[in-house]
Amino acid sequence: MSEGSRLDPWVDAYAARARGMTASEIRALFAVASRPEVVSLAGGMPFVSALPLDTLADTAARLVRDRGAEVLQYGSGQGDVTLRGQILDVMSEVGISAHPDDVIVTTGSQMALDLVTRVFCDPGDVVFVEAPSYVGALGVFRSYECDIVHVPMDADGLIPEALAEAITQARADGKKPKMLYTIPNFHNPAGVTQTTDRRERILQIATGEGLLILEDDPYGLLGFDGTVPRAIRADDDQQVVYLGSFSKTIASGLRVGWAVAPHGVREKLVLAAESAVLCPSNYAQLTVSEYLATQPWREQVKVFRELYRERRDALLDSMEQLMPPGTTWTHPAGGFYSWVTLPEGLDSKAMLPRAIAALVAYVPGTGFFVDGQGHESLRLSYCYPDPDRIREGVRRLAGVVESELEIAQTFGTARVLRDAEGPENPSPNMN
Ligand SMILES: Cc1ncc(COP(=O)(O)O)c(C=O)c1O
Predict the structure, then answer these.
(1) 250 exposed, middle or buried (CB, 10 Å; 0-12, 13-18, 19+)?
(2) What is the dihedral of CA 309, 196, 243, 304, to 10 degrees?
């Protein structure tokens, strides 16, 4: 039987890997959620208006005027060498020391996720991911037909013993464990951070099992108390590919991220990148490079930290005051997200249309799993709306949860448990 729309005459022609690329039914709801009257706690958009926009405008204009022939030309597939040197400076914050040759600049870290998976994963290879995990990474792993296995986490991040068990189980099932994808800092969507002990243990397990660690760290510099957790890659330059991004510390629209990888892997990544895009945008890279060279970028990161801390506080305080008993949530020490667990019996996906009717949006937990988990949870983002809007959003959401509880008490539980449901792909910009 063919899948997809009957209106699409190409339905039977698509490659097997396109089967995993499906839009969810909640996507349409997000079109409504972007209306101004809806408080969206759904999207993970950084608050770029806090940047020195005039300065960035001058930088971009100056680059074209003074170095137009270079800026508007093709560049190196590996990325601009000056920028690669500056990236080392940024990574020194998380304890990583490397050589500019170890770095490849990519079109956001999203592209690096794609390249690493392309280079390492055959269909059926097992990729271990946290439970829950980042929607955009799940989409990549699915498109390369990986066998995605969720590994439980708690308030201290991924549970190492659960990883070891999952690896043993995969081998017992005759599968090929290939890599662990992890977001150790200020997790998207769980809002938790891996402890140092756990990082060490996870590295030990991965090394013993010959498992590549793909360490994704777009939020590492956004810890609210100013401490920057040490990267796993800082302790092993052979077992780990580290991904970084300027999306949350400068501007997501510039689409500049990077990977740092062992030498042979880095060479493969450059070849894969050249076949995908020839080279990353010189204009974007040099804008970042100029900004890093001429602006107090660490001060700007502090501005972002303060701004997001205030918003995190607005979210947590108002949930504390307003959410019905039985609702729990994580307390992020940095980043953009809190993971909320609803009172027993409620279903975040079933509740979403009611929430949007009440003019508040979130992402249902099911979007962050490939195996049908997540009905009892949802992700709230506090990065974009201002604190007053966040409080108003929580007030509306608390009202919706309360009326769901009343309905559940009257008619029985609302949750419909489904077997092995596909992932949601809620929307490309719900990241
Ligand atoms: C965990 C995680 N990884 C990767 C990305 C992609 O970021 P970039 O803008 O660098 O492509 C995001 C974006 O939200 C993210 O949350």
Answers:
(1) buried
(2) 10
Interval between CA 172 and ligand 1 midpoint (Å): 33
Nearest CA to ligand 1 atom 8: 108
**First and final C-alpha spacing in the chain:** 32
Does the structure show a pLDDT above 80 at 4?
A: no
pLDDT value of position 226? 87
Centroid of ligand 1 to alpha carbon of 425 (angstroms): 15
User: 23 is written with which tokens?
Assistant: 């839009």
Alpha helices in 262-386 (DSSP H): 263-277, 282-294, 297-322, 348-357
> For ligand 1, is residue 257 a contact (CB within 6 Å)?
yes
Residue 252, phi then psi, degrees to nearest 5:
-65, -30
Q: What pLDDT, on the 0 to 100 scale, is given for residue 419? A: 38
Give the per-residue pLDDT at 31.
79
Which CATH fold would you assign to the domain 11-50+299-411? Aspartate Aminotransferase, domain 1 (3.90.1150)
DSSP of 155-169:
TTEE-HHHHHHHHHH
pTM attached to this predicted model: 0.94
State the average pLDDT over residues 58-78: 96
CA of 352 to the centre of ligand 1 (A): 24
Of 117-126, 228-237, 260-269, 420-429, the poorest mean pLDDT is in: 420-429
- Ligand 1 centre from 116 Cα, in Å? 14
Ligand 1 contact via 244 beta carbon (within 6 Å): no
Judge contact between 348 and 342, C-beta under 8 A. yes
- Is domain 73-294 given the CATH code 3.40.640.10 in the classification? yes
Q: Is the CB of 183 under 6 A from ligand 1?
A: yes
Does any ligand 1 atom lie closer than 6 A to the CB of residue 216? yes
Amino acid at 227: T
Any ligand 1 atom below 6 A from CB of 218: yes
Instruction: Tell how far the Cα of 363 is from the centroid of ligand 1, in angstroms.
Output: 16
State how far the Cα of 243 lies from the Cα of 233, in Å rounded to an integer.
10
Q: Ligand 1 in contact with 107 (CB < 6 A)? A: no
The residue extents of the domains of the chain are 11-50+299-411, 73-294
pLDDT, tens digit, 9 for 90 and up, residues 158-187? 999 999 999 999 999 999 999 999 999 999
CA distance 229 to 250: 19
Whether 185 lines ligand 1, by a CB cut-off of 6 Å, is no
